[in-house]
Write a structure and sequence with these properties.
42% helix; disordered C terminus; 6-stranded mixed β-sheet; single chain; Nucleotidyltransferase, domain 5; alpha+beta; 632 residues; 4 domains; GIY-YIG endonuclease; globular; 20 helices
Length: 632
């Protein structure tokens, strides 16, 4: 039995992380300490004024464990990771898990491209952002391509110049076709310099040019062109109005302020890049009543900036926070440049923080009722589900479905819900590799085995939590007893203890109930848990069907060439490029097949023997569209 007082005596006076467990061994709190011995003892000293949250938490502690680190900075990093993984009840928890898009310009390429990026890569590209709206980023990229005629293709230039015809964008005057050599590298680079100038917020040059072009087209009675220039002009003005100058220093900084009410808090963040406000967003946190704003901000910074790919040079805060120097050191290490946290006391900066705080109060007051309703649909529905199944601590749920057409192009889908909300960044698609024909059970076994083996391997490699690395608290199968048993067999084989539940449908293909622990569990059709299960089941089905439909629409349902030993994507593409159809390949001699660059004598004989020794049934899907890729 764990004796808390005895274990307190064994604590080392070293930095590290401590983990508190309750009577059911759930992790209820994670903290860090410069001295584990001094910090953990404080929780169990009656003379200390601990606050309501800590007082309540201590009554539930049945045991604790700790991890010693070499420094307090290492302890901070480990604390962030453990909080993200376990989401303990008594830690201040960030409710939102948002990923912000960037605009990426591949300036390291001879003929650079512009694209949306979710992460900042370790390359020489230029990144602009983060932006709070993916839609706005896509609109901006589209506008830039229209303005500057930047290519959108993935061709390797200049190596591929002249190898293929120019694409549609060249014919509609949205690309200068560097793939054909129609524009020199130097001229193209001038356009890219202007793009970078534009993304840095300098719009005067392009506004003046568009105004001149519009007026010239109008004078020449080319009214269609004039209208086109007018539309582009309005689009640039719209973007320019959104990025107003807010800070004459021209630095990258985030402005953070908090508003709280009992167990709810909102942190408002203004994103300033190059002196311009490029976006703002708010984040909801679950707190304990009476928690100070400094504590809330400290918890938010550690959770939010542990996951965001870009950290600005400074964070302007509403008030001082705990461990400010340590957090500065941590952020500096992540950014690889100095990061400063400070509370402005006067001038424009102070007014910006006040504005952020007013916005936080406004969001909290406006959204309080909506938040309660949303919590009922999400977290409340999950709690109902826990009660129905007799489970605890369900945060992440994964649902699986299989889709195929007469056994061809079987695909699997994995959708993820966390706290009752879809987490689309973690969705995954699977093309079934090892199952022939329409065998949903075998296909599901393959999908689950690949998914969890991949996750186990990534965990062993020490990858960050997310995607395959994060395991669910509950697996939901689209089906009853049969599908559940398949999943349980995979869990047993991989030595994983994850509960599995089937989502059972009636004769009209509508959600009827759940199959769990060898019995069917009925659900009140008016309950939030029933609505949540229905949403998850529909989403898993939609995701699988969409993937399958995409494959079919590309003429990629099935090719007889897939069945030939030694013929992979490259050889199949080569065959379809050099022969008119399957019949032409079937009629070819070994010598004719050997003339293809990717095919040696052994491969040529395998192809020839395949067609001349087997009874072949070809399909209309054997077109020159050919190649498919495993999208796992």
């Amino acid at each position: 039995m764990f004796d808390i007082q005895e274990e307190l005596k064994k604590l080392p006076g070293k930095p590290g992380v401590y983990i508190m467990h309750d009577e059911t061994d759930n992790i209820i709190y994670v903290g860090k300490a410069i001295s584990l011995k001094n910090r953990v003892r404080q929780y169990f000293q009656s003379s200390r004024n601990k606050g309501v949250k800590i007082e309540q938490m201590v009554t539930h502690i049945r045991r604790f464990e700790y991890i010693v680190t070499d420094s307090e900075l290492e302890a901070l990093v480990l604390e962030c990771n453990l909080i993200k993984e376990h989401r303990p009840k008594y830690n201040t928890m960030l409710m939102d898990d948002k990923a912000y898009p960037f605009i990426k310009v591949t300036v390291e390429e001879p003929f650079p491209r512009i694209m949306l990026a979710r992460q900042i890569g370790k390359d020489k590209s230029k990144y602009f952002g983060p932006y709070t709206s993916a839609g706005a980023v896509k609109d901006t990229i589209e506008l830039i391509r229209k303005l500057y005629h930047i290519r959108s293709c993935n061709r390797r230039l200049p190596a591929d110049i002249g190898k293929e015809r120019p694409c549609l964008n060249h014919h509609i005057h949205q690309c200068n076709a560097p793939c054909q050599g129609y524009i020199s590298e130097g001229e193209y680079r001038k356009s890219i310099d202007e793009v970078v100038h534009f993304l840095n917020g300098n719009y005067d040059l392009i506004l003046g040019r568009l105004q001149e072009n519009m007026e010239a087209a109008s004078e020449a009675l080319e009214f269609e062109k004039a209208i086109e220039y007018r539309e582009l002009l309005n689009s640039v003005k719209k973007i320019a109005q959104k990025q107003k100058i807010t800070d004459t220093a021209g630095d990258d900084r985030d402005i953070l302020a908090v508003a709280s009410d009992k167990e709810d808090a909102v942190v408002q963040v203004f994103f300033i890049r190059g002196g311009r406000l490029i976006g703002r967003d708010h984040f909801y946190l679950k707190i304990s009543e009476g928690e100070a704003h400094g504590e809330i901000l400290s918890s938010f910074i550690k959770q939010f900036y542990a996951g965001t790919p870009y950290i600005p040079a400074s964070l302007m805060l509403q008030e001082e926070i705990e461990d400010q120097a340590l957090i500065e050191e941590w952020l500096t290490k992540k950014r690889e440049h100095k990061v400063r946290l400070h509370v402005p006391k006067k001038g424009t900066k102070e007014k910006l923080v006040e504005l952020a705080q007013k916005n936080a109060v406004l969001v909290l007051n406006t959204d309080k009722e909506r938040l309660k309703r949303e919590e009922g649909r999400t977290i409340g529905a999950v709690k109902e589900l826990e009660k129905l199944l007799g489970l605890k601590g369900i945060v992440r749920m994964e649902a699986y479905d299989i889709s195929n057409t007469n056994g061809f192009a079987s695909v699997g889908s994995m959708v993820v819900y966390e706290k009752g909300k879809p987490k689309r960044n973690d969705y995954r698609k699977f093309k079934i590799k090892g199952v022939k024909g329409a065998n949903d059970y075998a296909s599901m076994e393959e999908v689950l085995t690949r998914r969890f083996r991949h996750g186990i391997e990534e965990r062993e490699e020490g990858k960050e939590m997310g995607g395959f690395t994060s395991f669910p608290d509950l697996i939901l199968m689209d089906g009853g007893k049969g599908q559940v048993n398949v999943a349980l067999e995979v869990m047993d084989k991989l030595k994983l203890a994850i509960p599995v539940c089937g989502m059972v449908k009636d004769d009209n293909h509508r959600t009827r109930g759940l199959y769990y622990d060898n019995r069917e569990v009925s659900i009140d059709k008016n309950s939030e848990s029933f609505r949540l299960i229905t949403r998850i089941q529909d989403e898993a089905h939609r995701f699988a069907i969409t993937f399958h439909r995409d494959l079919r629409s590309k003429g990629q349902v099935h090719s007889v060439l897939d069945d030939i030993p030694g013929v992979g994507p490259a050889r199949r593409k080569d065959l379809m490029k050099n022969f008119e159809n399957i019949e032409a390949i079937k009629s070819a001699s070994v010598e004719e097949l050997k003339r293809l660059p990717s095919i040696n004598e052994k491969s040529a004989r395998e192809i020839y023997n395949f067609f001349h020794q087997c009874d072949i049934i070809t399909t209309s899907a054997d077109t020159k569209e050919g190649d498919t890729h495993d999208n796992e």
